[in-house]
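Field: sequence (string)
Field: structure_tokens (string)

Example rows 1 and 2, in order.
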Amino acid sequence: MSSGTRRAVIAVAGVAVLVVAFVVLQGGKSSDSTSSSTPTVRVVDAKPQGGVQKLTFKQGGTVKFTVVSDTADEIHVHGYDVHKDVAKGGTVTFDFPAKLGGRFVVELEGKGEQIAQLDVTP
């Protein structure tokens, strides 16, 4: 292998190491309202799968979560007084400003079943 080829291989390997390091470091960062993963609450037989789900968001940011339900009902976010209907086998997404701090109940309104606890923290 010539010295020019050897330098090129070393340069390419160095760039590959930098790219891998960048990807790993980016994966370790977390952000609340800009995260690409939206929390999902799954409702099975009119109950939250895995128990009442805990949702936490920063006040001043955005509350965003999804409900997937096998039960038709109205989903009510208490305190914020936000309501959305979900069809049997349907999905609804909530997306609203986190103006109020505190702890709030998210429930299947018709069934009176709490499916999530919404915490909006300072």
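Row 2 begins here:
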Amino acid sequence: MQYALLIYTPPQEEPPSEEEMALEMKAYNEFTQEIVDKGVMQGGEALDAIETATTVRVRGGELSTVDGPFAETKEVLGGFYLVDCADLDEAIGYAARIPAANYGSIEVRPVWNVPEEYRAAE
């Protein structure tokens, strides 16, 4: 079963130092290599800063766009991993090892297996 591990972190008032960033990236690279080696990782990406986001809405056929994320929150979505795990417990185990779990939160969400009747014809 596939799970999205959504990485939420508090917004930073000032950017991390080069040393802090190097340590964080080392931890992420080690975690990522481990789940690649185990054949669990299906995909994932880091997301750009929330200031670069655009929220799209269509209401009554009218398109509107707003700069920034959809919701006002104390934590922002910074990236995700898509993993293939036997069950929720395994996915939670991996989520707990993502470096940001130490100061943010990781949402573990099953990927919806879209029923055949809802899929577009190929």
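free_text_note (row 2): The first strand starts at residue 2 and ends at 9.
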